[in-house]
Amino acid sequence: MATEHSLRRYRHWYRKLLRLYPKPYRERFGEGMEQTFNDLCRERVKAERGLFSFALWTFIETSVGIIRENMKGIIMQSKSIIMQNTRRLIVWAVVVALILMIPVAMKFTNEVQWNEAVAYSVILLAAGGAYELWQWLKTRTSAYRRAFGFGLAGAFLLGWVNGAVGIIGSDDNPVNLMYGAVFAVGLIGSLISRFKPRGMAHTLFVAAIVQMLVPVIALIVWPPQATSWGDAFVLSAFFAMFFVVSALLFRRAGV
Fold this sequence. Notes:
Blueprint: H1 2-18, H2 23-46, H3 52-105, H4 111-137, H5 142-164, H6 180-193, H7 197-221, H8 229-253
Helix pairs in contact: 1-2, 1-3, 3-4, 5-8, 6-7, 7-8
């Protein structure tokens, strides 16, 4: 009875000791190691040999293995972080270098060239921001990335079409500036919700509502300006569809 009690006690403590291994290692080898320990303990009991010295040595050997595997995990994680930060530094160094080269590559003789230089700088900064966004999205689930992609595509198309040809009337129609409220809602809502799926879903639903309210307000407040309000409603519904789909995907991602 005393031997069986000791055997159960050693097996219990060995099982707890194995939990200190990193999860991937434990899931791969933990069950086999526990079974091997149990079998060796049984053999020593049958051979009427002591368990204490064997268990003590096994615990020491396993503890050394635990320290070694955890150190490997820490080193690999550190290397990954260093490599990721190095890539980020390289990307931003290239962006800054290209921005600084713009004055060298252009002769500033009039305001138009200055405007072009600013535009090129904004494009380069946007490219750096896109890289940062992609690195951040890689830490999220695939469902979250799909939801974010739909919302981002809707915002990009809205800004592109509204800036290029305008949604209500022509591209120089000041009424189109009201669509900036959609971007404001998306940005403020995302920051308030800390980009969590449920909060992002609510934000995208509100953005879709604001998207559809813009042509309504334009028709009521500035009816002479809203000369193409029918097309404006169709286009607004098209962009709102992106936001609604994104919101539904965020809701699914948050489940």
